[in-house]
Specification:
The chain is an all-alpha fold. The protein has one domain: Hypothetical protein af1432 (Orthogonal Bundle). It has 8 helices and 2 strands; from the N terminus they run E-E-H-H-H-H-H-H-H-H. A two-stranded antiparallel sheet has the order 1-2. Helix 1 crosses helix 2 (50-63), helix 3 (68-76) packs across helix 6 (96-114) and helix 3 runs antiparallel to helix 8. The longest helix is centred in the C-terminal third of the chain and has 23 residues, at 120-142. The chain starts with 6 loop residues before the first strand and ends with a helix.
């Protein structure tokens, strides 16, 4: 085993992102990492984390009346990025191996925290929430309307800088509330 095969997570776990062990997936590692990862590859005029985005997606799913399971899935939809990092959509679309690896890891995360992988129908709803947030994030930060207009938001996300410790704590609190009520 060489360090080139694993990452060392916030909680000091040697995690193999390309051969994920479900039992090593820790919500504390996910919350910490996502609170420090910047959306839009760092091109927004201020720091806005993937953690904030994930919380906003969960709150939007909740405002739409989705099940607790689906709200939790929305909170976790970018969790693989905490182990693999993120690749922007225009680049990722031409990286089939990365997409396969990311999907495999995300499936393990869903199974670990939801008890099963999400269905195609659930994934479609998650993607709709994610795309809606993406649209309004770009409009807020860049003044840019993406090609595909989004449905009106049902929630009121905070698109302003938040300290990573606050985001991490909110992510963990929301996760714990959803895990208790979704099982």
């Amino acid at each position: 085993m060489t360090m080139a095969d694993y990452i060392t997570t916030y909680s000091k776990i040697h995690f193999f992102p390309l051969q994920p062990d479900r039992e090593q997936i820790a919500i504390e590692d996910i919350a910490h990492s996502l609170s420090l990862l910047c959306r839009a590859n760092g091109h927004f005029p201020e720091f806005y984390s993937v953690g904030q985005h994930s919380i906003a997606c969960a709150r939007e799913a909740e405002a739409r009346g989705y099940s607790k399971r689906l709200i939790l899935a929305c909170l976790l939809h970018d969790a693989a990025e905490s182990y693999l990092s993120d690749v922007t959509r225009p680049v990722k679309k031409d990286m089939p191996q990365f997409i396969e690896d990311e999907n495999r890891l995300l499936s393990e995360i869903f199974i670990h925290f939801l008890g099963s992988d999400v269905t195609k129908e659930e994934w479609s709803l998650i993607c709709d929430v994610d795309d809606t947030l993406l649209y309004y994030e770009f409009y807020h930060y860049m003044g840019e309307q993406l090609k595909k207009p989004a449905a009106p938001m049902k929630s009121q996300p905070n698109f302003y800088f938040q300290d990573f410790k606050k985001v991490e704590a909110e992510f963990l609190q929301l996760f714990r509330e959803l895990v208790i009520t979704s099982h």
